[in-house]
Amino acid sequence: MSGTSPASSGPAGARFEGQVGAYYLLSMLACSEPRGLPGTLIDRAAFQRADEGFPLDDVIVHAHDAGGTLATLQVQVKRSIQFSPSDDIFKKVVGQIAEAIKDPAFWSARNELAIATARTSRKIDGSYQDVLVWARQLGSAAEFFARLARPGSANDDMRTFVQTFRDHLRDTCAPHDDETVWKTLARLQILVFDFTAAGSATEELARDRAAHVLLPEDRAKAASLWSTLTDLALEVAANGGDRDRARLIADLQAKDFRLAGDRRFERVQAAVAEAARHALADIDDGAGNASLARSERTAAVHAALDEGRYIEIRGDAGVGKSGLLKHFAELSGSEARVVVLSPGRTPAGGWSAMRGQLGFDGTARELLADLTTDGAAALFVDNLDSFDDGERRTVNDLVREAVGIPGLSVVVTARRNFGVDEPSWLPKSAVDALGRAPPVVIDDLSSAEVLS
Fold it and tell me: Domains of the chain (ranges plus CATH)?
């Protein structure tokens, strides 16, 4: 295809909005789970539908889960947003959220809200995401606000975010009591798409996915397909339109793209999710009858993620390192499926054994790339000290494949002396290629970290 894409030459904000829309169109085309609605497949993607009851109207994803239950994700796209008390963009978006939650039907079904942004920050990656995870994980407003107020548990950035959110709801004359704030935050996600960054990992993964929806002999057209989807998203949005999969395929075939057959990952994704859920359920993220505050610990892991793609959480038994890994796995799992490997729950014998157990006919790279494109940010490996030889081969196969997946990190836990008394059994060349972040060392619990 020739010529200059209107999306490429238009305003940066419009292009970013088109790329986010194209991302969901591509997920629908590939029959992959949409980021922000794990466990579902897209039926239709709509754009600019505020007049039809979708106040967050840049992208509206209509989907269904394996049981046929319908789900909706409303996405408001903001290239840059700070979430601070003085940020007028955040205030406007909360006004749109207030309109969404005023509809009684919003609460009676799986209706989710998201803010898509290109620019992240330490606060967005850390405190703000942690608040949203707490809202989803904790079972009541009382429990949520008690943890938020507790010294050593939350931090000032988290409390300011929640108070700002409440203040903006109040300013729109929307309900802003504890119950409403908690329930609404539990339905809200912040989705970071780094399309505007040099060497964007999200765009590279999108082009990789685009290659796999094309016939093998046409995969060189992947960049052109991605550009076409971006243009199409902008065109459909300009008319307040929508696309289901059949019409999207017809649009692309009219532009001479030859598409491969359905590549449905839903069955293997469900198997991965089930395995991860069981592995995480084994982890006790408390100490006796106390829960562990993680504010400083999560900040340390977020800082390590800025330094490299391989992160070790080290510590002696009982200090909460597995609980910290569980927290990050649940954070990623709110957007997409994650892979969690632990001793006794990892197939022995390498990737081929794991592939057979999952009933998957693709490669490890295909699986990890698909999960990462859906929003999964890490491969989680708990308790490196306790894997047997057969399980180690499987872990090592996946760690090696992770090197070639942009944006995918490997987060592991181990005893303090792992790799010290004797060499680490992980593949050194792969870990070096990922980039070793400084280890996050968890010391014994302080009095501030043990919350009775």
Answer: 6-192 (no CATH), 266-451 (3.40.50)
